DNA sequence: AGCACGCCGACT
DNA sequence: GTCGGCGTGCTC
């Protein structure tokens, strides 16, 4: 008798362990670790992952696996091990770790149905009978609305009904119907004559097969080509002349796209020097982490491409992570252009089904390269030859929900196992990575020159306070308007960047200063022009924009702050003849909208591209000669120890959007704090000075990379509970950590309430703390009961990116 | 997470 | 005497 240890799909502390199941006789040879199964669990059925098969089990009453979901394991043994590592590293549940590694389509969905267990429908209560007229199974959801649960419960007790627990997949394989001919082509020509003359359509269909000399065609195409309906096709099938088959197909998000084949470019001296140690590491199967520090436009991508070529030549596979590539279609083009069908693409712009299909291409070894966002780091390759993380400093590589992993850490862990290099590329590396390269933990590869030998565009810092003093109260400085006008006259393009994070358009009463806040979260509501709505970005609460101040009834209530819409309106006033494309959540919501807008801009259908963070990366348009940053310092005032670093990175990146080709570029940065070092140094493209300055601050304030961080956030509907629990946690921590370690808190979180839950936090800053994980587990165990029964939540983020 | 089981107060 | 509230504990 064989048994399987299964991790079940119940993300809770008490079920965060393996449960044993019998493997039915017929599957004994089939079931292997890494497969998904459906198992009975209590009264219901749920999905689970087999992590081990064995010949003995300690348990006496063991149920059997009820269904096999995979014939090939969806988790390789490496990924199973990686999952184990993830749970330990991030203190998450095993099931959460496994689910994070697979496309969402493979997560189960649960439904309940009621089944009739008696032959005599009339035994049921009157209201229920109608539901079982045609069929003896009905979805519970359908019934629930019109019949009380009590009545249903009674019927169950009397044995007339039973609850059926269903496990469904979120998305299935896409299939199409294929029509094949069942006879030889010669026989078909004869059949045309034999068919009754009034069967015109059927004759047409057969003729389509004979004239085109084809064996099969997709039903959909046939219907169009032969201009017919499926009744005629069905008739032919029933006559045995044609037959129908179901074929599995991939949803191809890039189906209608043609990718120009590109050839390798000559590497310049610097690139050559950078690629040499990388190729050595690839060919000798050595694990190294390289930090490729290359200014924007220095040709990092070409180095990536040529090293990938080497990896593929060796019969191995590669993963390339990019921040959010639906945002940079140009990047996809470069990879697809060079490697064609060897590439799978995984990013958030794809539908669940499309992601699933791309993932299966990887699993079936139909591709050797995956280009994708964060979660692509879990691509089920078994013969990895290299991992590249482009724009290494991007905060989107850190997942902000469980499991709170950083793709960089996962990459290094996997690369160690596969004995292959990791390349971290950036023009503005994180301080952590740069510090490691200085200590020789990472190997530094430097690209200082831009490929086209162009110097970086000139940056002008405009002091908005002075503008204000000289009477300009608009959001555009005189200088910016001048330069924009200049571009309009010359027919060149501009990009305007609104750094919105920090404050968006909140609604305030000018008389009493009242700010409208979310009733469930301690955060001001955001004004959305569409439908005059006020929305909460944290809990989704919506209300109507009031006409008068709810506090003092004054009519002088209006929205403040700058949204892209408002900027656009103002811009049109100042430059009435400019053509503007606005890019923000509102205009890019629909699938593909993003790319369309960029294409339009690329075709010079607009003069000015106006947008938020999303236009900061990867844009490369030859005629853009001016980049304007409307307010550079909005991010600086956030309670985030990386605020300066992020500002520097963003400004550097935005500046890189101008003058990438023949025409020289220019950058205007508007700010209220022109003296701030991250703005000053970004304008001089002086990463090294920024690094030194910021490192000193991090040292003084005990932040990374000098200290590691752990952030514990406690939340509960009652503030007293939250405070007392956080205090208790701090107590436990204090008793268990080294002297050197600093514990901050308890303090209220920067957003003290979200969705009617109060939030308190405490921060641990440590250098060496080998028992931290043990202590944190102790804390979780200590509060376990209250967490499951009393609505208490404790979120632990080991190495948080922000304090929020 | 669900769900059953069990113990206590408020009703036909 | 029963219905239904939710605290407790289990799921191979």
From TrEMBL:
The enzyme's E.C. designation: 5.6.2.4
Gene3D superfamilies, per the entry: P-loop containing nucleotide triphosphate hydrolases (3.40.50.300), PriA, 3(prime) DNA-binding domain (3.40.1440.60)
Domain (Helicase C-terminal): residue spans on this chain: 544-698
Keywords for the protein's UniProt record, in alphabetical order: ATP-binding, DNA replication, DNA-binding, Helicase, Hydrolase, Isomerase, Metal-binding, Nucleotide-binding, Primosome, Zinc
Residues annotated to bind Zn(2+) 1: 509, 512, 549, 552
Catalytic activity: ATP + H2O = ADP + phosphate + H(+); Couples ATP hydrolysis with the unwinding of duplex DNA by translocating in the 3'-5' direction
Pfam families to which the protein is assigned, alphabetical: DEAD, Helicase_C, PriA_3primeBD, PriA_C, Zn_ribbon_PriA
Enzyme class: isomerase
Chain sites annotated for binding Zn(2+) 2: 518, 521, 536, 539
Domain Helicase ATP-binding: residue ranges: 281-447
Function: Initiates the restart of stalled replication forks, which reloads the replicative helicase on sites other than the origin of replication. Recognizes and binds to abandoned replication forks and remodels them to uncover a helicase loading site. Promotes assembly of the primosome at these replication forks.
Database matches in PANTHER family: PRIMOSOMAL PROTEIN N
Subunit annotation: Component of the replication restart primosome.
Family listed: Belongs to the helicase family. PriA subfamily.
UniProt protein name: Replication restart protein PriA
């Amino acid at each position: 008798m064989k048994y399987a240890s299964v991790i079940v799909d119940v993300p809770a502390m008490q079920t965060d362990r393996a449960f044993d199941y019998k493997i039915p006789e017929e599957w004994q040879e089939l079931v292997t670790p890494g497969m998904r199964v459906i198992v009975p669990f209590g009264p219901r059925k749920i999905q689970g992952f087999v992590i081990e098969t064995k010949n003995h089990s300690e348990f006496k009453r063991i149920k059997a696996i009820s269904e096999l979901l995979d014939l090939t394991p969806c988790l390789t043994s490496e990924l199973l091990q990686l999952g184990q590592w993830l749970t330990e590293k991030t203190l998450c549940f095993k099931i959460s770790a496994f689910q994070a590694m697979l496309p969402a389509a493979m997560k189960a969905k649960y439904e309940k149905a009621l089944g009739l267990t008696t032959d005599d429908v009339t035994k049921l209560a009157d209201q229920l009978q109608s539901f079982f007229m045609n069929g003896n199974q009905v979805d519970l959801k359908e019934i629930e609305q019109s019949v009380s649960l009590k009545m249903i419960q009674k019927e169950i007790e009397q044995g007339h009904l039973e609850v059926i627990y269903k496990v469904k997949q979120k998305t299935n394989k896409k299939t199409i119907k294929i029509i094949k001919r069942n006879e030889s082509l010669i026989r078909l020509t004869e059949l045309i004559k034999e068919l009754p003359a009034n069967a015109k359509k059927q004759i047409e269909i057969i003729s389509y097969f004979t004239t085109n000399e084809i064996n099969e065609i997709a039903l959909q195409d046939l219907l169009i080509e032969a201009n017919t309906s499926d009744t005629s096709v069905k008739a032919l099938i029933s006559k045995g002349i044609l037959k129908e088959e179901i074929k599995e197909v991939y949803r191809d998000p890039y189906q209608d796209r043609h990718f120009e084949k590109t050839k390798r470019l000559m590497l310049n001296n610097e690139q050559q020097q950078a690629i040499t140690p990388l190729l050595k590491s690839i060919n000798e199967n050595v694990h190294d982490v390289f930090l490729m520090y290359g200014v924007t436009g220095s040709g990092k991508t070409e180095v990536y491409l040529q090293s990938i070529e080497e990896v593929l030549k060796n019969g191995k596979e590669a993963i390339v992570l990019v921040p959010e590539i639906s945002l940079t279609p140009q990047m996809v083009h470069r990879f697809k252009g060079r490697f064609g069908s060897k590439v799978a693409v995984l990013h958030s712009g794809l539908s669940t089904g499309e992601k699933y299909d791309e993932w299966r291409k990887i699993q079936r070894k139909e591709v050797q390269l995956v280009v994708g966002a964060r979660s692509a780091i879990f691509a089920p390759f078994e013969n990895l030859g290299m991992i590249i993380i482009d724009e290494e400093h991007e905060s989107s590589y850190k997942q902000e929900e469980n499991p709170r992993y950083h793709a960089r850490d996962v990459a290094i862990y996997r690369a160690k196992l596969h004995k292959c290099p990791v390349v971290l590329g950036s023009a503005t590396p994180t301080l952590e990575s740069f510090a490691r390269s200085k200590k020789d933990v990472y190997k530094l590869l430097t690209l200082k020159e831009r490929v086209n030998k162009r110097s970086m565009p000139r940056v002008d810092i405009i002091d908005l306070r002075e503008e204000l003093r000289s009477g300009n109260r608009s959001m555009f400085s005189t200088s910016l308007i001048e330069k924009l006008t200049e571009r309009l006259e010359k027919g060149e393009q501009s990009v305007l960047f609104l750094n919105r994070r920090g404050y968006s358009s909140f609604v305030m009463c000018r008389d009493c200063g009242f700010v409208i806040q979310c009733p469930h979260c301690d955060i001001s509501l955001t004004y959305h022009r569409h439908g005059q709505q006020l929305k909460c970005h944290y809990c989704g609460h919506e209300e109507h924009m009031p006409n008068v101040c709810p506090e003092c009834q004054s009519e002088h209530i209006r929205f403040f702050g700058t949204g892209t819409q408002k900027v656009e309106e103002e811009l049109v006033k100042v430059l009435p003849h400019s053509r503007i494309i606005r890019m923000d959540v509102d205009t890019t919501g629909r699938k593909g909208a993003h790319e369309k807008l960029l294409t339009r801009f690329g075709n010079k259908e607009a003069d000015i591209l106006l947008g938020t963070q999303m236009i900061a990366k990867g844009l490369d348009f030859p005629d853009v000669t001016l980049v304007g940053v409307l307010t550079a310092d909005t991010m600086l005032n956030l309670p985030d120890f990386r605020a300066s670093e992020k500002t520097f990175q963003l400004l550097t990146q935005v500046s890189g959007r101008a003058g990438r080709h023949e025409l020289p570029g220019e950058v205007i940065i508007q700010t209220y704090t022109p003296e701030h070092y991250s703005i000053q140094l970004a304008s001089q493209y002086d990463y090294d000075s920024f690094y030194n300055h910021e490192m000193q601050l991090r040292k003084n304030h005990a932040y990374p990379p000098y200290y590691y961080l752990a952030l514990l956030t406690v939340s509960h509907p009652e503030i007293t509970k939250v405070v007392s629990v956080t205090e208790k946690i701090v107590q436990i921590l204090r008793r268990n950590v080294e002297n050197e370690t600093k514990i901050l808190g308890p303090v209220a979180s920067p957003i003290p309430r979200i969705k009617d839950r109060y939030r308190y936090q405490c921060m641990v800053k440590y250098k060496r703390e080998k028992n931290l994980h043990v202590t944190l587990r102790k804390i979780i165990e200590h509060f376990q009961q209250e967490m499951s029964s009393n609505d208490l939540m404790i979120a632990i983020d080991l190495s948080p990116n922000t304090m929020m």
